[in-house]
Amino acid sequence: MIIGTVKEVKNNEFRVGLTPSSVKEYIHHGHSVLVEKNAGINSGFSDEDYVLAGATIISKAKEVWDSSDMIVKVKEPLESEFGYLREGLLLYTYLHLAANEALTQALILSKTQSIAYETIELEDGSLPCLKPMSEVAGRLGAIEGAKYLEKPFGGSGVLISGVPGVDQAKATIIGAGVVGENALKMLVGLGAKVTILDINLKKLTYLDDIYGNRIQTLYSSSDNIERAVKDSDLVIGAVLLPGAKAPKLIKRAYYKDMRPGSVIVDVAIDQGGSTEVSKATYHDHPTYVVDGIIHYSVANMPGAVPRTSTIALNNATLKYGLMIADLGLYAAMSNSIPLRKGVNIYDGQCSCQGVCEAFDLPLLEL
Ligand SMILES: NC(=O)c1ccc[n+]([C@@H]2O[C@H](COP(=O)([O-])OP(=O)(O)OC[C@H]3O[C@@H](n4cnc5c(N)ncnc54)[C@H](O)[C@@H]3O)[C@@H](O)[C@H]2O)c1
User: Fold this and answer.
1) Which pLDDT does position 337 carry in this prediction?
2) Cα–Cα dist 183/51, whole Å
3) pLDDT tens for residues 351-363?
């Protein structure tokens, strides 16, 4: 198969679909790879790196799209890319179709075989191609939170670790999933005093086993959230209700009892956010202040660290990409239930329940 990757055209998207290391793997499996000129430059991969890995560099995006059997990307195609879609083309990328009717229609009409990273699902319900981005967001959330506590960034002037003889910062994490666990690991490492809340007692028991009395675990009742948030220098919102908006667990009324310049890192902002005043921000202006509390709520946190994010994403997506390239989509999805769940549009029909429900489309059972 001919595999292609193009430079992302979405504003501020610096990741790339294939690393040189992934290129090598595809070539090792007998495929050839086309890479648009400068596609990996913002993730720190030069054209020379791709050539050394065995890829051919192509100067025009259109030529990569037209000459490839499968395009491996990061973000969904934008309208400027719709013209490249065609019958039989395999598109393997994040799609988030339930939020994008125009793209759904474009993929159906063009009969592009479309596989979405975010709906590839393992037997235990986990989402292996979303997980690395939550790992990045959780770890980065802790670092950004510590940074915005600094006075020059408008923060309260608390050093996250304290020093001998001075209290460390108090941090609260709401949600002990992938984001929460990764934020916890960083904050414990930085020396903060951390409380983590979840409604899933199994997760709290697990964390209690791992960290013992170095952390405080609490059941996520509104009473416990209120007490923990009011007493915190840093709060990380990391709750997910699959398929629904994030619950507004952090009330504005709590802010008056917090130290001015305390920080809320609203990681769940991509699902609407965890506070009553949540609004999405971008990397160029990542924070806003409400009642003296700093809110960091970038919806695309992994974009700040594109090299790490690109490599982490490739680690998760390569396996399924190789299955498709080696076997063809039909045989690959017959062999792999997780991959079958990733197929959103097949032969011009919608095969993802969430997308069909969003736009009242008939469901193709694969
Ligand atoms: N801003 C970004 O760049 C970015 C990047 C990655 C992920 N995210 C978002 O971060 C959020 C968390 O993602 P994740 O991968 O950790 O999800 P996850 O499913 O691994 O974890 C979510 C956790 O929330 C818990 N939860 C549900 N209701 C709760 C409640 N009322 N109180 C406390 N905990 C509750 C669940 O039990 C689960 O442990 C999601 O909204 C995800 O989309 C944002």
Assistant:
1) 97
2) 37
3) 999 899 989 999 9
In the chain, pLDDT over 90 holds for what percent of residues?
93
How much is the average pLDDT of 33-56? 98
Q: What pLDDT is stored for residue 243 in this prediction?
A: 63
Q: Which of these three, 277, 304, 331, is where a domain ends? A: 304
**Considering the entire predicted model, what is its pTM?**
0.93
What integer is the mean pLDDT of 93-110?
94
Scanning the chain, the segments in alpha helix (DSSP H) are: 20-28, 47-53, 61-67, 101-110, 131-148, 178-190, 201-211, 222-230, 306-327, 329-335, 337-342, 353-359
194 CB within 6 A, ligand 1: no
DSSP 220: -
Q: Answer for the pair 14, 43: CB distance below 8 angstroms, yes or no.
A: yes
Q: 299 versus 362: which is more confidently predicted?
A: 362
Known catalytic residue at 96: yes
- SS3 letters for 235-254? EEECCCCCCCCCCCCECHHH
Q: Are residues 290 and 310 in the same domain?
A: no
From the CA of 289, how far away is ligand 1's center (Å)? Answer: 23
Of 267, 278, 282, best ligand 1 pocket probe by most atoms within 8 Å of the beta carbon: 267
Overall domain count for the chain? 2
Regarding whether 159 and 19 lie in a shared domain, the answer is: no
DSSP 8-state symbol, 151: G
Ligand 1 atom with minimal separation from the 240 CA? 22
Quick one: DSSP state of residue 160? Answer: T
Q: What is the pLDDT confidence band of residue 270, given thresholds at 50, 70 and 90?
A: confident
215: CATH: 3.40.50.720
- For the Cβ of 301 lying below 6 angstroms from any atom of ligand 1, the answer is yes
Over residues 168-197, the mean pLDDT reads 98
Per the structure, the complete domain to which residue 78 belongs is given by: 2-112+306-359
Considering the candidates 96, 283, 285, 295, report the single residue annotated as catalytic.
96
**Mean pLDDT for the stretch of residues 308-320:** 98
